[in-house]
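Journal club prep, notes for RB
We'll compare a predicted complex against what the paper describes. Inputs for the flavin-adenine dinucleotide case:
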Amino acid sequence: MKISSIIEQQGRSLSFEFFVPKTEKGETSLFEAIRRMESLKPTFVSVTQNATDTGAKNTSRIVRRIKQEISVDPMPHLTCVGQSKEGLRDVLEQYKRLGIENLLILRGDSPHGITKFCPTEGGFLYAKDLVKLAASLETFSIGVAVYPEGHIETRSLEEDMVHCKEKIDAGADFAITQMFFQNRFFYDFMERVQGVGIHIPVIPGIMPVTNIDRIEKLSQLCGATLPGALVEKMEKAEGSSEDVRKAGIEFTVKQCNDLLRNGIRYFHFFTLNQDELVTEIINNLDLDMLQSPATSPVEKH
Ligand code: FAD
């Protein structure tokens, strides 16, 4: 079922993101994790695409397996990396034949070490061009990535919002945010979104806090601000892995409960292929609130 229709009908959504493992062992663990998370009844699970020329092929293989073996809708991420327009059209046609109804369309990042994004010859420079192509097939509910603190390459939040709107106007019907650790960035973003007349559901992307080194690295890569108090708390807990785990879970539960209290009913968890942590976070949320009538974040903020 299309994510846009599910959100419209149910007014809430819980979803999980997984990455494509590099080894057979990793793939076995991934499928074990997805099977365990099935009981949380996710609206969909998404599968990222890595920044290599075979990225789309690997994602497609995992998505096909999920579709065949697990009763949860898979949503592939599709980036512009390593493909010409014709190559991307072929991938879209393959997803259509496979019965995929939802896609997260991205520009993607260049392979490690290359800072400036260079499109493949005959390929696309921006996500919006691929959104337009995907929308022309009239098959998919299309999601795009949005950035509460602005995309890392952007010069200003205003410029970022202009490009965000162009991308949505090209045919997206929902968006998932980059990770953020201070909800005020999300709430301010939703105000800017409303200000420019964007009315699609915006799903907050939640990165569970694990150890501080990993979170610092990830947040630096995408430009998400880490609150000083969180860093301090995690550093204090550093001597004991159990304390680190507890402090991380406590932080993310608090973050999600604040979003719930503010009317947010959509959550997309970046699982890093680890189901235990996300499951524990979800089990600690105020789930009654998640089940209660939704207030669209777009309307609320
Ligand atoms: P775009 O929307 O094309 O934007 C890229 C930059 O170009 C922005 O700075 C934007 O402001 C600017 N821009 C856009 N249009 C114009 C224009 N007309 N003129 C000038 N500037 C313009 N990456 C992966 O490689 N694989 C994944 O699976 C993946 N999954 C992700 C999932 C989520 C939820 C998120 C938030 C990000 C994900 N990413 C993934 C990262 C993403 O690919 C990067 O953030 C990438 O740098 C930008 O992608 P985009 O689709 O937002 O690009």
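Talking point for the session: Residues 241-261 form the longest helix (21 residues).
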